[in-house]
Design goal:
Elements (H helix, E strand, L loop, with lengths): L1 E5 L7 H12 L3 E7 L18 E3 L9 E5 L3 H12 L6 E8 L6 H4 L1 H11 L4 E6 L8 H16 L7 E6 L9 E4 L5 E4 L2 E5 L5 E5 L2 E4 L16 H6 L2 E7 L6 H8 L14
Parallel strand pairs: 1-2, 1-5, 2-4, 5-6, 6-7, 8-13
Antiparallel strand pairs: 3-4, 7-13, 9-12, 10-11
The structure holds manganese (II) ion.
Amino acid sequence: MRLLVSNDDGIFAPGLRALANTLAQAGHEVTVVAPDRERSATGHGLTLHKPIRVESVTGFFHPTVTAWACSGTPADCVKLALGRLLPHPPDLVVAGINQGQNLGTDILYSGTVSAAMEGLFENIPGVAFSLASYTEPEFTVARRFAAGLIRQLAHQPLPGAILLNVNIPAVAAPDIAGVCLTRQGVRRYTDQFDERTDPRGRTYYWLAGTAVEDEPEAADGAYTGSFPTDVATVKSNKISITPLRYNLTDAPGLDTLATWSGLNQGLYWLKD
Ligand code: MN
């Protein structure tokens, strides 16, 4: 398959190299366009107020990989690749392998997921891979699973422009307890700002915080279905696969609001 590979940890991140090289060795036509520095948690940001530059990267990836380092965000990278750098549209946009999980609210902040999401905007399906550890440097399980999943998708393409958000527990292969289709769970952060004082006596803040996972469904109206959450699945050492879309319409909320009479009379509010 023709694959565009990107990430948010930067062009020299070990997870990106593991992914791109594994897919190239499996015979796929791989082009990497990735940020020239770490861009984690930049979400779907775009660079509008300064130029975007790209530089060819040689000698770092498998010899059949074409690679570019880009000064922009993950979304910039994919947008530029699809709009200018690639001679043909790819069959799939593949992002990762991110160092750290992308579960629950992480998904909205994630540059990894956004890279793959950018492909969806152009009707190209995508897969975002994340290893559920911020420190574990071992990507063998994750890259093997990625190669297997991409091989499967070559035989059985996704039904339309769908994004698979894949999270792999950071354990050895024998300790992986299974592979699960999941729904987006709840993972948010508390105590987020550490308040400190700089040498000139001025207060500054440092974003930190601890994750709160799978509280009683905080997200009202969220799809529950019968599928386990991504959070619970990774916690039980299973690989989690959640299909995502970018349309955030709250369907139950829409149905409820439609029964309100007040909104239909909104034009009266404009009269004085
Ligand atoms: Mn990252």
